[in-house]
Amino acid sequence: MNLTWIAAALRPRDVAPHPNFGEKGGGDPARYLAAITLGEVDRLRTGASGEPDLYLVPDPAIGLVANTLRADTLESALYVLVDRLHERRPDDLARDAALTLFACCAAAELDDYTTALRLLDYEIGFSDKPRNDDQRLIQIVLRLQRALRLRDAGEPFAHDVVRALELLKVLSVERCTPFVTTHGISWTSLETLAHIKDALEASASHLVPVEGPDPDARSSPLVPSWQDRVRARPSEQVFRITALSNEVYSEYVAQAYERRLHGAASWTLGGPARPDLFYSSLMFELLAHPRVYPARRELAQLRFLQAASPSERLELSEGLRLLRHAGAHKELDRALRWLRAGGPLGALSRDARQIVRMRLSRPLLRIAEMKVLEGAAEMLTPGESSRALDAVLASLREGGPPPAPAGWASDLVRLEPAWLAAAALGRQSRRDEEVIDLLLGALPPGSDSGDELRDRAIARALQDVEWRNLSPEPTQRAADWLRRCGTAWPISASVVSSRLGIEEPSTHDSQLGEIAYKIDATVQGRALESDWIHLAVETLRRKIREVRDAAAQGRHAFGGYTVADVASGLLIYLDQEELWPDVVGLLLDPQVTREDKTGALERLARDLHTLPSFVGEALRGGAASLMSTAVQPFGAGITPYPSAVRALSVHGLLPPDTVFGLLATFAGSAVPAERREAARTLALLVRPDRHESWMDYLSLQLSFDDDVDVRAWAGRALAVVSSSNKAAEVRIIALLQEDGLLVPFQLLRTMKDLASQLPVSIQQEVSRLGNDHPSSGVRSAAAELLLG
Questions:
Q1: Which of 177, 36, 3 is nearest to 17 (CA)?
Q2: For 120-246, where are the E strands, in sequence order?
Q3: What does the pLDDT read at residue 723?
């Protein structure tokens, strides 16, 4: 048995050909496999052809393994390799075990755990009762790999870990068959095998969580306690892999330094190699060490940071897959928001379709998969979304998705992503009625009533459901639920009542919440009694005084409704002008926090076209104080205060030169948040009948910003003037062609009120979006715009 194969996978530096000693591998396929593990195949070149030597090696499996590490050939190479391994009884158990490790890594990338586990079971069967230490080593390697893949698949895995620990206890590396190591090291295969054994012990000892749910782990004395794990001697091989990762990070920082300080003035022939954590992550996968989970997360993060060209961005589906497999929910949420906003949508839909193909059984359909399905639902076909919805509903019937591998999550953390996924998939597959029944069924009267977190989670899902096309029966069921349970679940009740257009039972325990709800009802056309309006005005006056008095004493409240925002709603929608002095006094009070002012200022800038003259004069006189509002207990904000700049600019309370200077300062900032504020202000400031040339130029410049939010807001400003500005027209067409959802949605929403004035070229591009865009939501928005 040639244990060079095992070293090639688990300790590759000890057997790989070393360039300083002129080694070319000597025709030994195992040594070429080691070069593959290290990512150093390109060093092994023939003189004339320039092809890597591995393609000339007699063992064709080496080329297949190399191809499983490439995205474009992974799938085809994997299944050929699996067929080769199943063809016959292995001549060399070590060779087939090493190849099986690589096949399992490739199958995991495709979420094909069935193939990985079937292959592992097949290979384990040949040495299940090991007769010597070579076979014991093979069993340990395969058992730990199966444990990792079972853990990834959400299945019990501790039995394999315990079996590996039993074999490690009796394994003697001195009795293993020796092999030839590379000239690049000064020790023999005995020490190499000792390092491999240490690394396998570290993997086995840490693979089972300290508080694992598996009874096999709890009952076995071989599984170390957390104290023993802390005291254990670190594995030298794990240090090696970590050092390799650190080298990659160092190279990444060095290249970023060069780009930052030299930029376009510096050039090199061919360019530097791209730093990549793939091979250090691969080594953890082959070793079945639990450090693989943070390694997957780190590799995904690096991929997202490096994705600059279109081809690299399309590969980000692999980044999503890595975040899913790492159980990195926070990072996954951010990645999904980023991809949805700015694309590439192809990367998002590709990963979602892999989930639909391979992960719809409950153990595999976990929290992370639910998040991806929700984010990508509108890119799926109705058939795909219907299949996925069936799986989500089945998962919910069985208690919801399980947490990340060997992890734990509260019921609400597990259930909310499934509810949101069901809502998004139901909308795409036109099965909203089933989803509404499911969601309202999760809010029954009884002991759970009043759980605000559950109420908010269901309300978020209910907002995503398409209510417009409900038939009479589900509409009546929703109305019945509102009558029976609305008081117990007020947040969801507000959503249901607004969607159905019926009166909601008075359920708000907050006076501000009650007033806000009533104002919202007024916007939807419901009349309010004058006595109630008078009482609301007096309540808001009293609360404004309370906020100012508390601020004078250095006390501030956060979260929920803000009184100035609610009061501004009463001013705008119900014309209660007697509230103006109170609202203006709060806005100009320097001791009141930005938190208490922002909602009102944004509403005044967005929803009110004309201010009463006395209000305008008061705000004009206090503009400097308002823009310098600094009270922000949880960290410094942008200065000057952007919401104040926006409201004052929109209502013409600042000199034009001042407005230009402030927005130019924001637009020229290196901080994306400040550039967003410039673009947001321009989107409100530019109107068809009132805009200056500098606004058009600044909007045009910001529409090329790297930040997708900046481009979206700037595009809204350009859309307003596109009928009279050829440069704006051309830029709007380019923005509509961008990948992602945010920019097209923002533009289509803005242009809806300008449909009759749009140039023909823009109308043609909107028509193309209505037919060809990958998102059903963008297609619908485009169709609505064209219909007027």
A1: 36
A2: none
A3: 87
